[in-house]
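Predict both folds.
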Amino acid sequence: MQFTAQQIAGLINATIQGNPETVVSSFNNIEAATKGDLTFMGNPKYTEALLKTEASIVLIGKDMVPDSPIKATLLVVEDAYAAFATLLQIYQEMHVQGLKGIEEPAFVSESARLGENIYIGAFTYVNNRSSIGKNTKIYPGCYLGENVTIGENTIIYAGVKIYHDCMIGSNVIIHAGAVIGADGFGFVPDKQGIYKKIPQIGNVIIEDDVEIGANTCIDRATLTATIIRKGTKIDNLVQLAHNVEVGEHTGIAAQAGISGSTHIGKYNMIAGQVGIAGHLETPERFIATAQSGISKVSDIPGQMVGGSPAFAMRDHLKSSAIFRRLPELEKRIAELEKALSERKKD
């Protein structure tokens, strides 16, 4: 597909500097862009790259327009990052809108309820009493168990498995290979130490505007629901255990693991490879830096922690600085002990 600078400017309320009839058909970064590409500049450190770029159109913040002449046509906006994100979203939606109907072979139960303008890819299985809202797209190779509910305008990418009774909201994106609603890790040892399984009869509820990364696993609750509140964004390879509740607009990065019955507050930021023990509750705007191991949490909103076991980030940084000097400090202590011992002999 081809678009002119004039057409693009209308979508993002941009001012054009250059030829409004300049045509682009693809996106690229500012260093690698060539003729026919659209790129953007949202950081002044790329000014030199801007002067050299071969892109046909550059989306740029109004405070970053250079004095030197640019070969490319400029689309000047208030916020280049936000405008570029809007364009990418529009481009993606145009692609998704072309997906309609039920591909063969796919199994859709007669008791399933299907909204208008949906897409169900080949080799997908939709079980009894499941419901799919209008404009939702389910890519090939997915599984929907009994009584699964999916809202409107949701995208379920290839290979996602959603177990029975789980509820997915509207405007949700679930990436390939994610598993929603597998049994929580519930076992109890008997007198001989043999583990007996505790049936997990709850479900998973994912509210609106949530995004879940590839190969992430969200376990069903034992009795009630594991809940992911609206606006939350979860990266790839994340594990959320049974009965976990994640507050609104929280971000959880790759390889984080949250143990059972822990409640994550609103607007939390959980960085990569963070481990959080069970039955904890984090306050609002809590930040756990990468590889933190959290076994205890204060109730201070906005607290940032680091380390394992995790503690206040400022103290963690001080401790890290000392830790790097331990070999030197050990040597100095040994020298002092030796000197003290010799003085005592005298």
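Second protein follows, with its predicted structure tokens after the sequence.
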Amino acid sequence: MLQIVVVDDSGAIPIPNATVIVQWSDADRARRPVRQGVGPAGDLVLCAPRDARQATIWAEFGDASSQEAVVGIVPETASEVELRLLIASATTGRLIGYVRDARTERPVVAATVAVVGGTAATETNRRGSFVLSGVPVGVHELAVRHLGYAPLSHVVSVSRGITTEVEVGMVPDPVEMEPIVATATRPRRLEVGGFYERKYWGELIGGGTFFTATDIERRGPVLISPMIADEPGIRLGNCRLRRSSCMLLNTRVASEFSPDGCPLSLYLDNTRVRGLGGRDGQTIDDLVRPHEIAGVEIYRSAASLPGEFGGSDSQCGIVAIWTK
């Protein structure tokens, strides 16, 4: 059991409504991080999975976050964890990115990524992605190295409490061509809502389908419902013809065990949307247009749902839409 309390940087004032993120670790597999809000007294009690051996824990509240706490899991033992939000003195941000071969677009595995002159360093995983937390605010030189590729250095700007995304294209050595680097700051609503963490772990373990604003702009749909319905295993239920399109009145999953399908729940900016397709005929396409969308998450079953979308209303899976 973990007994967690979130307080201010002095340790004297509890912080209600803060979000605690827990990454369970074991020897066999990667787990999706758990995100859960604390109570009015800033406290939270969590039970560890049976096979967990270690937990990495931190808290977030607006632009402020705590330092990471690493706790070893001892069976039948309660561990007390105090997380202090660095509200007044928050001076760090986070870098997350992807390293690929500039010629083939394949991920570069085990590339070393480091902030020059600092202590932040890591390696890319099998998908070529990396995360650097606790990077001091300011302008830094990011160095990327891998045997067989030309060394790459790139200047990045790190903002307080914000995650900056970096895409790196490494050039095989000794081919002469310019390295490719693209830098983007993530939309604030998606960052606070945990979209990017769920996307990272969901794509890593196959736990969902995710669209960013870039994906939507690339496809250029007139309405968002047909784009969602194009995904394998999803079809439109109770459709009607309107403005030359089949509107999403009730999105369903086709199942061999349930020929009529099982209705997916719909969330808009983390709020459950009800009553679509009623007497007034309102649809999701009436509520939001593709150019207004920052991200879409699709979970086809309750087994793949992250904890924040759980509940009896989501037993068949969900579609979560985030606006810009």
